[in-house]
User: Fold this.
Amino acid sequence: MASGGVKRALIFLGPPGAGKGTQAMQVARVQGVPHLSTGDMFRDHVGRGSELGLRAKPIMERGELVPDEIVLGMVEERVARPDCANGFVLDGFPRTIPQAQGLDALLGRRGFGKALVLHIAVEYEKLLRRLTGRRTCATCGEIYNIYARAPKVEGKCDKDGGELTQRKDDREEVIRERIAAYDRQTKPLIEYYRAQSGLVDIDGAADADAVTREVLVTLARL
Ligand code: AMP
Assistant:
């Protein structure tokens, strides 16, 4: 992620179902930097039954956002680890203006340049289909879609045979609330980052591999 000697944080911004997780995972793999998904971190806390997980669980089940100070504390702690020293890919964070401001301050303190933001746009109907069809490998976190990117064997991960699970918040009534939360609280970040001239628009309508190619070509040009 070092570009011109400046270490960078890359942010994937977009509504739930835009493909942020899939793309962030691929880019992090190619660039050899960590993929930091705040949603995955919360799901991990919930799974372990930690204090943070107990606070986050009911909020996540309603499709609402966890309070900013909790998210910021968790990200700050993760970014302080040595594997993030040369850059990292953020997925699902920041999601509010205060989180973006907190991230700006954090990057400044850690000697990072301005974050680079890839905004992935996808139309509403497609988002619904992607979210209701999404399945995740319980072992490695690989993401599939039963409509568009089905595994070779139903219910099993192609990579390690792990069981494919559906997220609890990928049910339709929760999905509607998550998209509403995005429109209300996260969409303003598009203009926030556009004004900082660190935002690039990516059309997320194509299949995942085509979007990855566009993302990598875009990053190579920057
Ligand atoms: P995701 O996997 O990114 O869709 O996140 C799943 C859920 O975790 C969200 O619906 C929120 O409840 C919570 N969450 C994840 N990231 C954040 C964040 N940056 N700010 C607030 N809540 C978050």
Notes: Residues 2-122+187-221 form a domain with the Rossmann fold fold (CATH 3.40.50.300). The first strand starts at residue 8 and ends at 13.
